[in-house]
């Protein structure tokens, strides 16, 4: 089973999930160590990240290894098929967006009694607004 993406190839064979970031690095992980896979939005053009989560056999939590692969919009269908095949053949859980939703990013209101700093000036407010907009538009990787 293989998924070829620009800059990255994923291949499952002989019990190993192999990542190859062409000209950069490679990673081989026992396929039975993969506990979940999910798609995460990346940018506003429809790009996504394919996020794999691995754990050691003897650990239920902690010791997590995460591998990411960039999925351009035109590779979305083959990536979805690859993830579905991983679920069917190896029982790897595909995490839905609802399961990974984070609380929205908010600022501490300056009117709160425990606020320690005086209100920010106009340039700082503009910077905060721009940073919040960028974070919402393109989540961290």
Question: What characteristics describe this protein?
Answer:
single chain, 141 residues, alpha+beta, PH-domain like, 3 helices, elongated
What does this structure look like?
The protein has 141 residues and is an alpha+beta fold. The protein has a single domain, classed as PH-domain like (Roll), CATH 2.30.29.150. The chain has three helices and eight strands, in the order E-E-E-E-E-E-E-H-E-H-H. It has helices at residues 76-90, 97-100, 122-137, and strands at 2-5, 8-13, 16-21, 25-30, 34-41, 48-54, 65-71, 93-95. Strands 1-2-3-4 form a four-stranded antiparallel β-sheet, covered by helices on one side. A hairpin with a 2-residue loop joins strand 1 and strand 2. The longest helix has 16 residues, at 122-137. The radius of gyration is 19 Å and the shape is elongated. The two termini are 26 Å apart.
Tell me the radius of gyration.
Answer: 19 Å
Low-confidence stretches: none
CATH topology: PH-domain like
Largest sheet: 4 strands, antiparallel
Q: N-to-C SSE series? A: EEEEEEEHEHH
Quickly count the domains: 1
Globally, the shape reads: elongated
Query: How are the strands of the biggest sheet laid out side by side?
Result: 1-2-3-4
Structural class: alpha+beta
In short:
By secondary structure, this protein is of the alpha+beta class. It has one domain: Roll (PH-domain like), CATH 2.30.29. The protein is built from three helices and eight strands; from the N terminus they run βββββββαβαα.
């Amino acid at each position: 089973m293989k998924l070829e993406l620009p800059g990255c190839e994923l291949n499952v064979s002989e019990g190993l999930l192999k990542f190859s970031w062409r000209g950069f690095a490679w990673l081989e992980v026992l396929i039975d160590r993969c506990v979940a896979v999910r798609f995460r939005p990346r940018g506003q053009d429809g790009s996504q990240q394919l996020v794999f989560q691995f754990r050691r056999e003897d650990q239920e939590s902690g010791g997590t290894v995460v591998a990411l692969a960039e999925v351009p919009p035109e590779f979305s269908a083959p990536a979805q098929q690859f993830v579905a095949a991983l679920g069917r053949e190896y029982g790897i859980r595909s995490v839905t967006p609802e399961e990974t939703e984070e609380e929205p990013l908010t600022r501490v209101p300056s009117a709160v009694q425990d606020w320690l700093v005086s209100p920010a000036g106009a340039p700082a407010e503009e910077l905060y607004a721009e940073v919040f907009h960028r974070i919402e538009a393109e989540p961290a990787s």
